[in-house]
Write a structure and sequence with these properties.
By secondary structure, the protein is α+β, with helices and mostly antiparallel strands. Helix content is about 15%, strand content about 20%. The chain has helices spanning about 1-5, 45-60, 125-135, 160-165; strands at about 20-30, 35-40, 70-75, 80-90, 95-100, 150, 155. It has a 3-stranded antiparallel beta sheet. Strands 1-2 form a two-stranded antiparallel sheet. GO terms for molecular function: electron transfer activity; flavin adenine dinucleotide binding; succinate dehydrogenase activity.
Length: about 190
């Protein structure tokens, strides 16, 4: 948080100047104790502010960005070390090898493998498939993260901040039900 603040992210502040923090699901003190408030925000535009702050850092550091490219497969050398990837230029159809000293997989999720999800349409699991094809060991593949609050049947996400600010979940009978599953955290329980 402090690093992002030093980059210029305009976090919301308390009257005394400290960064405003609020509770979100799954945050507790002492591993399951009372609810913790440790989510920093930039008003109701945190994602927007974060993207702009990080984009400015990319401009400042002259980062080359390959927009509208699609990673296809990791490339390994004879010793089995990953040395880059192949990628497809969506505009031209050209396939290119990107050589790399280090490769970081940050490909998003795979929530679109489920019929009902609030995940973005691009979260199709292609990055996971790329890693599996390269022999990267997988663990706990049944544990997909879902955003816990949405409008049933519509795939519309309701920000988690609604629950952090006192909103609560109801079942189809209009009853609050989370206390049965998480007596302490209730509607702010973790997603598992």
């Amino acid at each position: 948080i402090l690093e992002l603040e030093h980059m210029g992210l305009p976090f919301s502040r308390l009257d005394d100047g400290r960064i405003y923090q609020r509770p979100f699901g799954g945050q507790s003190k002492n591993f399951g104790g009372e609810q913790a408030a440790r989510t920093a925000a930039a008003a109701d535009r945190t994602g927007h502010a974060l993207l702009h702050t990080l984009y400015q850092q990319n401009l400042k550091n002259h980062t080359t960005i390959f927009s509208e490219w699609y990673a296809l497969d990791l490339v390994k050398n004879q010793d089995g070390a990953v040395v880059g990837c192949t990628a497809l230029c969506i505009e031209t159809g050209e396939v290119v090898y990107f050589k790399a000293r280090a490769t970081v997989l940050a490909t998003g999720g795979a929530g679109r493998i489920y019929q009902s999800t609030t995940n973005a349409h691009i979260n199709t699991g292609d990055g996971v498939g790329m890693a599996i094809r390269a022999g990267v060991p997988m663990q706990d593949m049944e544990m997909w993260q879902f955003h816990p609050t949405g409008i049933a049947g519509a795939g519309v996400l309701v920000t988690e901040g609604c629950r952090g600010e006192g909103g609560y979940l109801l079942n189809k009978h209009g009853e609050r039900f989370m206390e049965r599953y998480a007596p302490n955290a209730k509607d702010l329980a973790g997603r598992d």
